[in-house]
């Protein structure tokens, strides 16, 4: 049952002057990056082919740079063989390529040993964030959840980090407990202390909300649940594309993300888990490659990570995901990404406040939105808003964003809102086309 006492019907109040007030701390430090220039669009074939499009849906899936498309094709042209299944050179080369990406991801998220060597065996490849989180809920959770235990999540979670825990609690006789933020998406110390206690076995939370765009205080959640011997599961789908992620600094026990939101191909997901916890978990899927030996009546599982990678993986996609992460973190770099995206969000918010009929969900301050701005146009259905924007060449998301409990708690009409999500490959022209498109939306219904 969703607690509606924490929010009033004015949740979607339009932002006001503080976002532009030079005396305000958040506004005073805004990054002065030239967003008129765009050195990145040329790297993305779809954006080059369609200059008439402003793509503002990167939170759903990112565009792919040419180097990623080339890498996927190169795999099939130069090392097309089934990894781990052959002793001939092509298969060995394919296997080595996949293992290099596994080690690359371990280094990227800080999964390293005391000598700073990557703990590559802790990286499990899946199809997406959803499958990774389901794996934890179905393979690990049953080993620790007992009747009367509690799993704590936030009301801001994507369905992928909510429904698996509903099912896990139902199966174990445990209770699902919700953390409720302020109307701007902040989790207070009081709320954390009230909800995470001796019965809490698992806390599962997004690193960055896919609706509010706010960053959650994972370090505080980790400290609270670890104090009671529990575990922290992190959905990093919306953070990996925007900022450095370190599982040690966060205090995570499991972490999941998707390649396609980080410039990689669709169909590749990543799950990291502490080795001893992955060893403890039972396989989520069974079949080929995840076994050590099989008899007529029994089987012995292969060691982690193969234990969780039944069947043939998307080897070309994994290989290209490695290229995507290299482009993201080395050719562009998180520092440059943050500067550019913050400048874009600041500009977009400054333009949106000029439209009194636009209601923004979450904080009015630009620096609380990591690439994501969710909004509604007053009195107009989000689907109509998105359709008219599409005719103006602007791609935004409209609907419940796989966050129905959050939108219900916010009191959003139709359980829907619009979402514009920016990436470093956007520029001022994209934002201007978006704002002009919103004016067209309003005029269409108020001619």
Tell me about this structure:
- This protein is α/β, with parallel strands linked by helices and 447 residues long.
- The protein folds into two domains: 157 residues, Aspartate Aminotransferase, domain 1 (Alpha-Beta Complex); 262 residues, Aspartate Aminotransferase, domain 2.
- Helices cover 36% and strands 14% of the residues.
- It has 15 helices and 15 strands.
- β9 and β10 form a beta hairpin.
- α13 packs across α15.
- The chain is globular and about 75 Å long.
- The N terminus is likely disordered.
Structural descriptors:
single chain; alpha/beta; Aspartate Aminotransferase, domain 1; 7-stranded mixed β-sheet; 4-stranded antiparallel β-sheet; 36% helix; globular
Question: How does the SSE layout of this entry go?
Answer:
Layout: H1 25-28, H2 45-49, E1 54-55, H3 66-78, H4 89-108, E2 123-126, H5 129-140, E3 150-154, H6 163-172, E4 175-179, H7 189-195, E5 200-206, H8 218-226, E6 231-235, H9 247-250, E7 254-258, E8 269-273, H10 275-280, E9 291-294, E10 299-301, H11 315-332, H12 334-352, E11 358-360, E12 372-377, H13 382-391, E13 394-395, E14 397-399, H14 404-410, E15 417-421, H15 428-445
Parallel strand pairs: 1-13, 3-4, 3-5, 5-6, 6-7
Antiparallel strand pairs: 2-8, 7-8, 9-10, 11-12, 12-15, 14-15
Helix pairs in contact: 3-11, 4-11, 5-6, 11-12, 12-15, 13-15
The CATH superfamily of the largest domain is known as Type I PLP-dependent aspartate aminotransferase-like (Major domain)
How many DSSP E strands?
A: 15
* Helical proportion, percent range: 25-40%
The oligomerization state is single chain
Q: Give the N-to-C terminal Cα separation.
A: 42 Å
Rg over CA atoms, rounded to whole Å, is 22 Å
The structural domain count equals 2
CATH topology call of the largest domain: Aspartate Aminotransferase, domain 2
- Unreliable stretches (pLDDT < 50, length at least 5) are 1-28
Main sheet characteristics: 7 strands, mixed
CATH-derived architecture of the largest domain:
3-Layer(aba) Sandwich
Query: Strand sequence of the main sheet, in spatial order?
Result: 2-8-7-6-5-3-4
How many helical stretches? Answer: 15
Which structural class do the helices and strands define?
alpha/beta
Q: Helix and strand succession?
A: HHEHHEHEHEHEHEHEEHEEHHEEHEEHEH
Shape: globular
Strand content: 5-15%
Mean pLDDT: 92
């Amino acid at each position: 049952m969703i607690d509606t006492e924490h929010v009033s019907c004015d949740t979607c109040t339009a932002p006001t002057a503080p976002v532009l007030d030079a005396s305000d701390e958040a506004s005073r430090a805004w990054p002065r990056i030239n967003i008129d220039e765009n050195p990145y669009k040329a790297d993305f074939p779809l954006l080059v082919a369609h200059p008439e499009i402003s793509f503002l849906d990167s939170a759903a899936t990112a565009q792919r740079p040419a180097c990623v498309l080339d890498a996927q094709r190169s795999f099939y042209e130069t090392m097309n063989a089934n990894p781990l299944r052959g002793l001939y050179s092509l298969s060995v080369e394919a296997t080595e390529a996949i293992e290099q990406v596994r080690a690359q991801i371990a280094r990227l998220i800080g999964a390293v040993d005391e000598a700073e060597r990557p703990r590559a065996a802790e990286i499990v490849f899946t199809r997406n964030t959803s499958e990774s989180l389901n794996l934890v809920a179905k393979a690990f959770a049953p080993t620790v959840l007992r009747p009367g235990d509690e799993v704590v999540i936030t009301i801001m979670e994507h369905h992928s980090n909510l429904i698996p825990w509903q099912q896990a609690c139902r199966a174990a006789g445990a209770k699902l407990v919700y953390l409720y933020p302020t109307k701007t998406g902040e989790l207070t110390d009081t709320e954390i202390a009230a909800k995470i206690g001796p019965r809490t076995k698992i806390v599962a939370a997004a690193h960055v909300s896919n609706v509010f765009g706010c960053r959650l205080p994972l370090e505080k959640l980790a400290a609270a649940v670890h104090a009671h011997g529990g575990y922290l599961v992190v959905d990093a789908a919306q953070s990996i594309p925007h900022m450095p992620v370190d599982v040690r600094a966060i205090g995570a026990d499991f972490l999941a993300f998707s390649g396609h939101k980080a410039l990689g191909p669709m169909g590749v997901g990543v799950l990291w888990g502490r080795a001893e916890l992955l060893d403890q978990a039972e396989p989520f899927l069974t079949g080929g490659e995840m076994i050590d030996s099989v008899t007529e009546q029994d089987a012995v599982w292969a060691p982690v990570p193969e234990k969780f990678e039944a069947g043939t993986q998307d080897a070309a996609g994994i290989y290209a995901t490695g290229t995507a992460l290299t482009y993201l973190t080395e050719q562009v770099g998180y520092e440059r990404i943050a500067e550019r995206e913050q400048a874009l969000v600041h500009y977009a918010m400054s333009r949106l406040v000029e439209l009194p009929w636009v209601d923004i969900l979450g904080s009015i301050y630009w620096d609380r939105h990591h690439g994501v701005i969710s909004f509604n146009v007053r009195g107009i259905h989000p689907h109509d808003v998105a359709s008219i924007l599409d005719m103006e060449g602007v791609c935004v998301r409209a609907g419940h964003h796989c966050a129905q409990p959050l939108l219900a708690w916010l009191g959003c009409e139709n359980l829907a809102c619009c979402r514009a999500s920016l990436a470093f490959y956007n520029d001022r022209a994209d934002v201007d086309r978006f704002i002009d498109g919103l004016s067209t939306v309003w005029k269409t219904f108020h001619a």
